[in-house]
Amino acid sequence: MTPITTTAELAAFCDKIKNEPFVAVDTEFMRETTYWPKLCLIQAATPNAEAVIDPLAEGIDLEPFLAILRDTKIEKVFHAARQDVEIFNNLKAMPRPLFDTQVAGMAAGYGEQIAYDALVRQMLKIELDKSSRFTDWARRPLTDAQLTYALADVTHLAKLYPMLRTRLEKEGRLAWVHDEMQNLCDPANYDVEPENAWKRLKPRRHTAKYLAVYKAVAAWRERTAQTRDQPRGRILKDEAIDELATQAPTDANQLDRLRSVPKGFSGSRFGPDLLDAVREALKDPEAYAPVIERSRQPPSPAAGAVVELLKVLLKARAEDAGVASKLIATVSDLELIANDDNAQTPALSGWRREAFGEDALKLKRGELALVLDGSRVRVVEVRRAPKASAAE
Asked: Rounded distance, CA 104 to CA 107, Å?
């Protein structure tokens, strides 16, 4: 098997598939030691053509294939697409419209975050050869075994897609997947602007001083990781950002006292720049701190117990619908609902509200009950006796 290694070959392949209704896509990349993912291979397949593209080939221009990804007339099919989408978003080619077979598998009842090989096994009755799964995709030349393994990821994907789509259409759940795809293709999910890095984390406090330092340290780490092309965690761990924001050190001695910061950090090449970022944030914390919307309702004392009940309800409703519960709601969603009937969460809007959210609110109001029927939990309506009139 020979991969595509020239722009002319790539343009010819893209010309062949440009009128296809969909293209199945996968990538092989390396990012264990880098901030930016290193794209090593692109695999693509349609019902009538397939190819392995070598992005590391000298002189190759990926633009013909990126144009396919941008073409809204062609549906792009991935499995567990998030990291692939991130790579192509970095290349200014957000793949829209998108169809993720992992999400579709969850909607079709194949389980939580089903792996590609498991989905192929269940739907196509084929066992995949995973012997080349952990390989160095940046090393050249690639072997025939590696190329065969890589191409199989999309040839089977091209067969799965029509089957999954048809099944979801019959069950009235295709819109569920499309709803998820809108979120997956939101460029905000892949924002690498350092000043927005704090949004991916979970600040534990809400004072201006804490949030200002938190934002500044997160931005410093993101900027440093990008400049040095190193993973964020190699620069500074997430827990260190919280401690730095809590203690707000302004000199080397204070920095060295922090437990989550590596020993000698203040004397490293990172220390002075980090302290400068902290001191800059402390000049005007009120102005620099991000504004975080907080629930207007105080936390419910019974929220923990309510969350546990909602977990049982979610499992029951997911089993009734034959869909993975994680697609309907997460634990974070349940925590928000437990504290606020009007919480801004996907579980209380659209198809999720119909499948679960409305029942969650009814359970909180005592209008539904959970009944153990053998080994299965049933959801039943609570019939309240009418109130007696004053005359009675």
From this structure: 5
- Name every residue whose Cβ is closer than 8 Å to that of residue 242 and which is 6 or more positions away in sequence: 203, 204, 214, 260
Q: Are 78 and 101 in contact (CB under 8 A)?
A: yes
pTM of the full structure: 0.88
pLDDT greater than 90 at residue 387: no
Residue 127 sits in the same domain as residue 268 = no
Structural domains counted in the chain = 3
- Cα gap 180→311, rounded to integer Å: 21
Distance from chain centroid for Cα 2: 33
**Residue 58 belongs to a domain:** yes
When pLDDT is cut at 50, 70 and 90, the band that residue 305 belongs to is very high
Tokens 């290193």, located at residue: 38
17 falls in which pLDDT band (50, 70, 90)?
very high
Strand, helix or coil for residue 381: strand
Lowest mean pLDDT among 62-66, 272-276, 279-283, 375-379: 375-379
CA 276 to mean position of chain CA atoms: 33
Q: Specify whether the CB–CB gap between 339 and 300 falls below 8 A.
A: yes
Q: For residues 222 and 193, give the distance between their C-alpha atoms in angstroms, rounded to a whole number.
A: 8
- Collapsing DSSP to helix, strand or coil, 265 comes out as helix
pLDDT recorded at residue 385: 58
Share of the chain above pLDDT 90, in %: 87
Q: Residue 2: inside a domain, yes or no?
A: no
CATH number, position 347 = 1.10.150
Task: Round to the nearest angstrom and report the end-to-end CA distance of the chain.
Answer: 88
| Same domain, yes or no: 168 and 230 | no
- Residue 296 pLDDT > 80: no
Closest CA to 69 of 94, 49, 90: 94
Helices (H), 185-270: 208-228, 232-235, 238-247, 252-256
What is the span of the domain harbouring residue 52? 7-190
Predicted confidence (pLDDT) at residue 354 exceeds the cutoff of 60: yes
Strand partners, 373: 376
